[in-house]
Amino acid sequence: MINIKKYNMKTIYNCWIVLSVLLLATSCNDEWTEEQYKQYISFAAPINDQGVMNIYVRYKTDGKVTYKLPLTVSGTTMNSQDLDVHVAIDPDTLNIMNQERFSTRTELFYELLDEKFYSFSESVHIPADSYAETMNIDFTLNGIDMVEKWVLPLTIVDDASYNYMSHPRKNYAKALLRVIPFNDYSGTYDAAQYRIFLKPDVKNPFTISSQRAFVVDDRTIFIYAGTRNIDYLDRKQYKVFIRFPEKGTDSKLLEVWSDNPEIELELDEKKACTFTMNEEMDELKPYLKKIYITLYLYYSFKDYTTVPGTKLEYVVEGSLAMQRNLNTLIPDEDQQIQW
User: Fold this and answer.
1) Pairwise CA distance, residues 44 & 52, whole Å
2) H-type alpha helices, 57-206
3) Would 288 disulfide with which of 77, 217, 228, 282, CB 3.0-4.6 Å?
4) Strand, coil or helix: what is 215?
5) Cβ–Cβ contacts within 10 Å for residue 141, how many?
6) Structure confidence by residue, pLDDT tens digits, 291-313
7) Are the C-beta atoms of 302 and 264 separated by less than 8 Å?
8) Which phi and psi (to 5°) does residue 107 adopt?
């Protein structure tokens, strides 16, 4: 005999489960037709472990270069209205970041990029049915001195009269753009074969793991003499300029000099400063172009700031090597190079 009570309870239970699933599905479908979050405006400018976002801009002696910074509308539904997002320079955030990260180490501070080097529209139009738009920043970097760590700090401006709100989280509503101009020869070189000798000791050299080369113009870079780098307070006095020959010539000779006579930079009469530059396509990734640059440098200089009243003489010799990888599938050059 069938247990009617048990059968009815099982049927009721199964019906309840089915009904619950249907109600949940209906609820979910209705729920996703409505906005689940605020439609905040944000920069797509994530910071790195240095507290900034590096942006690479091709150096051009004459003419401007445009960098496209994305602005996005967050949320679960498509933006339904035209938005005119206002953007302004934000030196206060830059000052706070410098104080929090470096305290009194002013030589490490990021510097506000001079307004003569950039321009942009104060508002960016994001049309309805779009969740993102790019903000065009025009850079004209002729004459920039890369001794400083230049940053362009931006913020999304809020106002009661605007029909949008910036993202409440600081790192979304702010953009700290560290501007790094590049040419064909700038970048970070491996210094495994680079030696710095303090005379008269020529057997126990100082070594560094890498050497950063900064842009001066389209075919000139500078490095810091000896073991100095961008974190030294006196770095400006120890710039070593390196100029490459005009493109299309067969010359491999480098021009090397300093703009500070106090360091008494001298070249080795027996060893010329030269370079090699080669390129090849990757065997496994045919879209990847590899460019190899090697600098052979031989010079001496005097350090007159470390020990006041005493000049320490250094001899530098060896090679610096850099590999630059280019993804040829990407049309934008600043994005093409794999930094």
Assistant:
1) 12
2) 91-102, 170-173
3) 282
4) strand
5) 22
6) 999 999 999 999 999 999 999 99
7) yes
8) -65, -15
The pTM (predicted TM-score) of the whole model is 0.85
Close Cβ partners of 207 (under 8 Å, ≥ 6 residues apart): 191, 194, 195, 196
And the tokens for 76? Answer: 């679960």
DSSP string, 60-90: -SSS-EEEEEEEEE-SSS---S-EEEEEEE-
> Which of 107-111, 167-171, 200-204, 332-336 is predicted with the least confidence, judged by mean pLDDT?
332-336
How many residues are present in the chain? 339
Question: Distance (Å, rounded) from C-alpha 285 to C-alpha 235?
Answer: 40
Asked if residue 185 lies in contact with residue 212, where contact means CB atoms within 8 angstroms, the answer is: no
d(CA 132, CA 125): 10
Residue 66 CB contacts under 8 Å (≥ 6 apart), including other chains = 136, 137, 138, 139
Of the candidates 230, 315, 314, 219, the residue with the CA atom closest to the CA atom of residue 275: 219
* Tokens representing residue 98 in the block: 């410098």
Closest CA to 213 of 180, 187, 231, 236: 187
Q: Which of 77, 52, 57 is nearest to 67 (CA)?
A: 57
In degrees to the nearest 10, what's the CA dihedral of 339, 324, 225, 194?
Answer: 120
pLDDT grade for 29, boundaries at 50, 70 and 90: very low
All residues at 6 or more sequence positions from 140 whose CB lies less than 8 Å from its CB, including other chains: 63, 64, 65, 116, 117, 118, 119
